[in-house]
Write a sequence for this structure.
């Protein structure tokens, strides 16, 4: 099969590319390199440095493609209340373009990477797919809009759509010099530089991290199984819930670092309790957590150590600067 991956230089996109190549598929993809790393793209994949929002380009690139994995996105939840234009453009507009070109080119299926931000704050955790989504920031609203858009177009044009909802993924190839997202990578990068990590709020926000390989085993199946069409499926573990404070302690323990975190005010609209149920993925995709959190974090530490810790790059525009904008970004504290 010919598989096209938007965001192929990104963390998830590059792992999907590698998995699909290993299964013997032809892989091609595009990325505008706003995130990710160019060296993430596997040598055997065909790479186009193209922005997925351009319809003419996407129409050309998608010729004869069978399946699309749509991962391209600026997945910045915290930043999205300060740079909504950037986030919405790279989420809603890219999805619209990909859908339009995919339908024109007669593509069979789009596997869309959504986000647990679609759920927002719910009364019960872990979040299950049948809950009414209540996103509470422009990122979550964009991810849900992208889902609606794809669902609407698939009803008219018969393209198959699947929505994967991965959450808090960790692992090698994740961007770790980005001050705006990826809490575990940021902490590792800082501690390896001998610097104390920064924690927003009291650090008691609860998360459940998934190791990328565990997610990839499920994501691979979403391209081919008939029973997943039209479904929303959480991908990731629902055990080992951990607070951000505990995450810092675990990383410090693994790299033998004397921890004394710097606490900063909460970021607006941050969801406090965010964990997803894996019941549906277990049932339909045979999801299994094979990596413990410590193993996953150790793999990331090895990756960052090998490439060397890096200075953070403030590569994105903050559109709204006022008294609510985190000082961590304005004063480049990372
Ligand atoms: N990593 C996670 O924990 C996580 C959790 C939930 C959902 N997701 C979703 O999975 C997808 C991939 O996330 P990731 O963590 O790999 O992010 P990532 O930033 O590593 O990868 C996304 C890639 O998309 C590219 N991109 C962004 N806008 C683009 C555009 N307009 N045109 C072409 N390329 C563009 C970026 O350069 C980047 O390489 C996203 O849709 C994200 O919302 C990720």
């Amino acid at each position: 099969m010919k598989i096209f991956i938007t965001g192929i230089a990104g963390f998830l996109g590059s792992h999907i590319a590698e998995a699909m190549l290993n299964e013997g598929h032809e892989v091609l993809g595009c990325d505008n390199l706003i995130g990710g790393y160019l060296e993430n793209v596997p040598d055997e994949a065909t790479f186009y440095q193209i922005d997925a929002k351009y319809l003419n380009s996407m129409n050309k690139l998608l010729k004869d493609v069978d399946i699309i994995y749509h991962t391209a996105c600026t997945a910045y939840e915290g930043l999205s209340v300060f740079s909504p234009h950037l986030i919405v453009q790279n989420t809603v507009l890219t999805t619209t373009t990909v859908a339009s070109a995919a339908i024109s080119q007669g593509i069979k299926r789009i596997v869309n990477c959504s986000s647990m931000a679609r759920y927002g704050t719910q009364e019960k955790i872990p979040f299950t797919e049948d809950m009414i989504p209540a996103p509470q920031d422009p990122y979550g609203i964009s991810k849900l809009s992208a889902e609606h858009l794809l669902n609407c177009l698939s009803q008219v044009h018969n393209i198959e759509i699947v929505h994967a909802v991965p959450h808090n993924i960790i692992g090698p190839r994740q961007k770790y010099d980005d001050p705006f997202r990826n809490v575990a990578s940021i902490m590792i990068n800082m501690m390896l530089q001998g610097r104390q990590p920064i924690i927003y709020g009291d650090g008691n926000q609860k998360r459940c991290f998934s190791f990328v390989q565990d997610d990839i085993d499920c994501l691979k199946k979403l391209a081919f199984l008939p029973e997943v069409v039209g479904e929303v499926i959480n991908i990731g573990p629902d055990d080992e819930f951990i607070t951000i404070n505990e995450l810092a302690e675990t990383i410090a323990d693994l790299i033998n670092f004397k921890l004394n975190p710097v606490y900063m005010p909460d970021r607006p609209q941050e969801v406090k309790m965010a964990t997803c149920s894996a019941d549906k993925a277990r049932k339909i995709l045979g999801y299994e957590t094979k990596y413990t959190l410590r193993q996953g974090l150790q793999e990331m530490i090895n990756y960052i150590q090998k490439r060397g810790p890096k200075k953070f790059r403030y590569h994105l525009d903050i559109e709204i600067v006022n008294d609510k904008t985190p000082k961590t970004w304005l004063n480049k504290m990372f």
In short: The mean pLDDT is 96.
